[in-house]
Amino acid sequence: MKTITNSQRNLVRIVYDIANEHGIAIESFSYDWILKLTKNEVQKHVFGYNFELNSATSKMIAGDKTATTDLLQSANIPTVLHTLFLSPAMEKYVGSIGNWEKIGTFFNENNQKIVCKPVDGTGGNDVFLVKTSTQLEQAIHELFSKYRSICLSPFYDIKKEYRAVILDGKVELLYQKNIPFVTADGSKTILELLQEAFSVEVLDSVLATFSSTKTHKLSDILPKGKTINVNWKSNLGEGAQAEIIQNKTIEQLAVKAAKTINIRFCSVDIIETTSGEFFVLEINSGVMIEHFLNSNPQEYTRIKAIYEKAVLRMLEN
Length: 317
Hints:
CATH superfamily of the largest domain: ATP-grasp fold, B domain
Number of helices: 11
CATH topology of the largest domain: D-amino Acid Aminotransferase, Chain A, domain 1
Number of strands: 15
Mean pLDDT: 89
Radius of gyration: 21 Å
Shape: globular
CATH class of the largest domain: Alpha Beta
Helix content: 25-40%
Distance between the termini: 23 Å
Strand content: 25-35%
Oligomer: single chain
């Protein structure tokens, strides 16, 4: 077996460690994006962050935000609303009336403050907070230039976002995502504060996201003690910080959501609003804990144990 360097994905390093410890033959393909694991004539795969535990159907449902919303609502599970809109290029399904009237109605019915994003997006990419008609038009045109289907959601006043990693109906890890911020010291520019606060791995994303908010310039020097919110999203890849917690209410909601779409190994994102309500935001079939581990290297043993259970259960049959 080849040696895996720390410069590669954490998942790859962990799976190789697991294979070495359990006598599992492992082969790598496509720049380590596909790992083939073999033991006792049983052969399984890890594709990206997807383990060969979930059915193709459950993976597809989890990868479609509107499909997930529909199924969770049918099971009376509180969930963030995702309303589907298809590209005008798909006129056969959209109809001659188009989307714009319905999009405008949705925008107005939700107090002209909504979130626009791709149906199958991940990592907070191409997610737009829209507050004006001009922003709406820009977001819709940009999304439809890249995607065949998009979804719109009301803006929820979020107090906190959580992620639960679930394997076979049990929460293996639960953490909250703390929205990133820096505190001004009265002498450094915002750029200098951000460079000090965030790692090289996420700094470019943090700078791009902060610049897009247009609330302050990176060259601004703000009064000492002033809190500067870096982002409105809770993505670890964009600077949010993870904090491990325990919360039975969140755990039960996450497990119920996973069971509703019959998915075995996944992460469930849940929001808590300022009014104290909990809603499922999305379900991820790919269990990616890269950013979590980069910012919490002391949790390597805990994360390895989760992936170890997944690998061994894959090879059971």
